[in-house]
């Protein structure tokens, strides 16, 4: 769920929960107005909301036998990659590709989704599956080490 307990969304659970479970867009925006953790990194905050909703909905639907999972891809060689370069910086995105040895391919993500839809994943529930070549793990460990 985005790293060990105590990570971003756990520290900011009230804001994540208020935003993710708001009745409408206005209430969602009001819930986080002035919150620097949100306004300073809305992309990360949106990812954390998806992760929280994955757990929330998995818990809600568990008695009905409905599984809920989410997939969080890393940089994938699709047309949206140029948007990421613009929004996150060319150097950062290109650096991620160099570190990983390549950008992901749509098939990398599709294989994971196919697995999650299969009977083999019947015990996977309430999980966000990072399909990013290890990029998040690398960044989390470096951040924890103060690098």
TrEMBL record:
It comes from Streptomyces kebangsaanensis. InterPro entries: NAD(P)-bd_dom_sf, SDR_DHRS6-like, SDR_fam. SUPFAM superfamilies: NAD(P)-binding Rossmann-fold domains (SSF51735). This is SDR family NAD(P)-dependent oxidoreductase. Keywords: Oxidoreductase. GO terms for molecular function: oxidoreductase activity. Its EC number is 1.1.1.-. It comes from the Bacteria. Belongs to the short-chain dehydrogenases/reductases (SDR) family.
């Amino acid at each position: 769920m985005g790293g060990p307990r105590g990570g971003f969304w756990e520290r900011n659970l009230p804001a994540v929960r208020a935003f993710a479970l708001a009745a409408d867009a206005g209430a969602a925006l009001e819930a986080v107005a002035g919150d620097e953790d949100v306004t300073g990194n809305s992309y990360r905050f949106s990812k954390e909301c998806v992760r929280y909703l994955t757990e929330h909905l998995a818990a809600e639907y568990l008695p009905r036998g409905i599984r809920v999972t989410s997939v969080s891809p890393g940089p994938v060689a699709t047309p949206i990659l140029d948007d990421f370069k613009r929004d996150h910086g060319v150097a950062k995105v290109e650096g991620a590709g160099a570190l990983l040895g390549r950008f992901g391919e749509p098939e990398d993500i599709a294989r994971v989704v196919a697995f999650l839809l299969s009977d083999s994943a019947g015990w996977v529930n309430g999980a966000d599956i990072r399909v990013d070549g290890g990029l998040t793990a690398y960044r989390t460990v470096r951040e924890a080490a103060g690098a």
